Amino acid sequence: MLIYLARLITNPTGALTSIHNKYGDCVQTCIFNKRLLFTSNPAHYEEIFNQEAKGLLNRDSLYEAKKPMFGDGLFNSKGETWTNQRRLMQPMFTKQAIAEWHGIMLEEAANAVARLKSNGSTKVNISEELKAIIQSILIQVMFGRLNSSNSEKLLMAAIDTIVKGLFPHLLSETLGKGKLKRLFVLQNRRMEKAINQFVGYVESKIDEIGPDGHELISLMMKGRDRNGSQMSRALLRDEAVTLFLAGQDTTVNTLIWFFYLIGRHEVVHKRITSEIMELEDAPLTPETLERLTYTKAALYETLRLYPQAIALSRDTAETITVGGQRIPKDTSVIMSLYATNRDGRWWDRPDEFNPEHFLNGAATQRHKYTFLPFGGGVHNCVGRHFAELEMMVIIVTVLRAFTIQVNEDINPTVSITYKPERDVIVSVTPNVNAKIGM
Predict the structure, then answer these.
(1) What transmembrane ranges does the database entry give (predicted)?
(2) What is the CATH number of domain 2-430?
């Protein structure tokens, strides 16, 4: 077991798969006197989430490790702070509420397509293009007009540094209770500098923006909880940082994998394009996008093969039971989502790209926690509707204009998200008579 635990830092997806292949669905072990439970069974996830709702599990052990980056934002807060913040944030991310930013998504996606058409190049770094789109959308949604200033370029560089260093930082805390920090001294120093840059940018934007605008930061300023209280400046900053980090990297990587996969699977690509072209010139409203069932299935299949969270972690606040096993207090419970997503018991041909996994009622035949692209339980992702709308708008806008082809194999690597090991270069061919629907 020790060799697999060591591999969690260098090859976490391989390690998780090996642990469950060798030892089963529910595996208890210990490292540095830290109790660990690994589980990959959806029924166990349901037990864990149900007991978490009763206060028997929490996320407290990583609170201090995440605090320098996320403070008391939703990704890290606990207890009454988390409950109040969730109540304040939830109304801002309903399907109805995110319509406020739909136009920004459409405009930025259309601008990207126009830029690619004007360049006339047949080879495109899709990784850089998608990052530029998502960053532009997020800056405008959160802070208003895009300035293309040097400070924003520094912001993006800082985010890249944070994202690269966050996974080993959190994993070393989970496995070694801080005893593995010395393995990442230089990386931690770079992260600290990047965090300070990022937080400084957010602080400056809070000073610039008042509570009367339509920007997300303004809405958060105006938000009130059930007692009429509003967010403190510190919580406002923490939520802005959390949403920016969570909203960029996960969405960018999912879209990169989506275009990579359809660029490698011509039959799937043609079926998606055919479905999109049936819309003709219809505006890309949320209602219109709901008609694209095969395209959405391909997006979900991308998230199955390349989940942006390969595992979820909770800590037992009391002794609990999972899968019939007694799990002592102060155990870190690791839900191995990657292993679940590649398990042949739940998925036919689990390592293949097959959107049919999400069509014709297939999802209803599986346990509801077999697929958790946006987390589960009380701490599920508040921005799910925003992320899905954003990705579908970009996918449809790009594929209305271009056919994508990929001629190289790309391996994944793990940071805080499950991302390609390098930028993905695609071949693009303009679709004849294609129009960009708004």
Answers:
(1) none
(2) 1.10.630.10
